[in-house]
Amino acid sequence: MTETFEHLVVGKGMIGAAALRYLSCGSQRVAAIGPDEPVDAEAHDGVFSSHYDQGRICTQLSRDRLWGELTRQSMSRFGALEAASATHFYRPAGMLYIAPAADVRAIAALAHAMAVEHVWPARPDMAALCPSVALPAGHGALLEMAPAGIIDPRALIRSQLSIAMRQGASVIRETVVAAEKTSAHWTLTTDQGRQFTAKNILICAGAYSNCFGFFRRQIAIRVKSETTILVKVSGADAQRLSGMPAIAYQIDAPRISDVYLTPPLVYPDGNIYIKLGANTDEDVILQTLDQMQHWMKHGCRHPRQDMVQALCALIPGLDVSAVQVKRCLVTYSDHGKPYIDALGNGLFIATAGNGSSAACSDTLGSLAADLMLERTWPAAFQPADFSVRLMPDSPANPRLHPGEPG
């Protein structure tokens, strides 16, 4: 029997889970459809998400004032979310920026403009503020104080979903593989052969947004491979680095750039790791479903020594006993902001985090829900900044209603 809802969210990652919680506050019969994290990634035949992780950076100063406001509003609600769900996912550890002097000055100007508490110039104070971190030659530093820090994306999603379900929402742990529009409603078919109908659907499918025929024409996104490493930390080092902030480091290196790392974090296997990521010269744009699946299952398997060396240079004396490689997908929009838009005929989208959506996912979900429920957005945000763009010359999807935009 086909189950009918008013609003269906496709994807229950960080944005989708947040949207579901907000929708369940203002509407009956709402649900999110999306698979759980696979137990064995290499044997998994379904889609993947990039929230299979314990540590994401949470900062107001990484891009511009719009991104900062998105994150600021999310962070202001973290305490209430943790209390309402009895789930701890947020650690206000601060954020250290290490970069050439001119770039640090630009970060300081943004901090002043946004009234974000910070310490700059930090070089004379580094021994006291971050005693375990060594500043590279030619670089300055700025320390953004709490509420900047780290969130646990797995726990954040559990928090959002638990509250949404308590408010009456349903969570369907399957994968949508087809969408069809009739004059009356949307029909979604899952990998289990079940069908669900809804007046409105919200696509929060991230890298997979173009893969299952949700849109009459494909949206303009780029999906990039991303490699991170998890460096196992000894108990002694974990204690020594217990007060360490998250770090963003503009490294001067030929093959990696934009290094970021977390303080030591406990992972599900019970071990403590520092996570480090970077853009690399081996990153590729993944254009098809097969390419994305191959990357997530069989991509980079061996730690890059330049990433390990960057970590050891920043934290001298670190005992590197074991290193794991983790793969994920980063989805970029055409204009550098998330897509949150209404495409007509009950079709909505909230996707393309541009590598920065974890910290602001609660705000993005709130904006998407407001759009679906026809509520006015907060004054800080303008819909034009989040409008979707379409791929030129992409073929039309005949399963969608002929009047569908695009």
Explain what you see:
The protein is of the alpha+beta class and 406 residues long. Among the domains are: 3-52 and 153-220 and 335-386, 3-Layer(bba) Sandwich (FAD/NAD(P)-binding domain); 221-333. It is built from nine helices and 20 strands. Strands 5, 6, 7, 13, 14, 15, 16, 17 and 18 form a nine-stranded mixed sheet that branches. Strands 1, 2, 9, 10, 11, 12, 19 and 20 form an eight-stranded mixed sheet that branches. It has a three-stranded antiparallel sheet with strand order 3-8-4. A hairpin with a 6-residue loop joins strand 14 (246-249) and strand 15. Helix 1 (14-26) runs parallel beside helix 5 (153-166) and helix 2 packs across helix 5 (153-166). The two termini are 32 Å apart.
Tell me which oligomeric state these chains represent.
single chain
At the fold tier of CATH, the topology name of one domain is FAD/NAD(P)-binding domain
Distance between the termini: 32 Å
Proportion of residues in helical segments: 25-40%
CATH class of one domain: Alpha Beta
Q: What's the total number of strands?
A: 20
Which secondary-structure class do the elements indicate? alpha+beta
CATH superfamily of one domain: FAD/NAD(P)-binding domain
Q: Show unreliable segments.
A: 401-406
Order of helices and strands: EHEEHEEHEHEEHEEEEEHEEEEHHEEEH
Organism: Massilia rubra
Keywords: FAD, Flavoprotein, Oxidoreductase
InterPro entries: FAD-dep_OxRdtase, FAD/NAD-bd_sf, MTOX
Pfam family, one: DAO
